[in-house]
């Protein structure tokens, strides 16, 4: 029984280290969100920090409301992509076991 518990603890520690590494990796990745068929692009980090917004010149002269909607849509697209990437990377480490955000193992 003691060996089994020890093995479980070691596996949990390995998983925790894997989760930490994946989180650090994700923070450095840049994702591009797009809207309006690529007329508006937002570059966002895995930490959800917007690095750059690119707006096609043809939109600057058009309707301001439409431009604002496209910027918001591109940002939301980037956020969805970051969330999807995090889930995929974490599933690789945790074997598909869902880990709540901010969860810290007690080891």
Q: Can you lay out the helices and strands and say which pair or pack?
A:
Layout: H1 2-28, E1 30-35, E2 40-45, E3 50-55, H2 57-60, H3 64-94
Antiparallel strand pairs: 1-2, 2-3
Helix pairs in contact: 1-3
Provide a descriptive summary of the structure in words.
This protein is α+β, with helices and mostly antiparallel strands and 107 residues long. It has three helices and three strands. The chain has helices at residues 2-28, 57-60, 64-94; strands at 30-35, 40-45, 50-55. Strands 1-2-3 form a three-stranded antiparallel beta sheet. Strand 2 and strand 3 form a beta hairpin. Helix 1 runs antiparallel to helix 3 (64-94). The chain is rod-shaped and about 70 Å long.
How many beta-strand elements? 3
Range of helix content: 55-70%
Summarize the biggest pleated sheet: 3 strands, antiparallel
- Helix-strand category: alpha+beta
How much of the sequence lies in strands comes to: 15-25%
- SSE pattern: HEEEHH
Rg computed from alpha carbons, rounded to a whole number of angstroms = 20 Å
Please state the overall shape, judged from the principal axes of the Cα atoms. Answer: rod-shaped
Number of helical elements? 3
**Biggest β-sheet: strands ordered side by side in the sheet:** 1-2-3
Low-pLDDT residue intervals, each spanning 5 or more residues: none
The termini sit apart by 19 Å
Q: How confident overall, as mean pLDDT?
A: 82
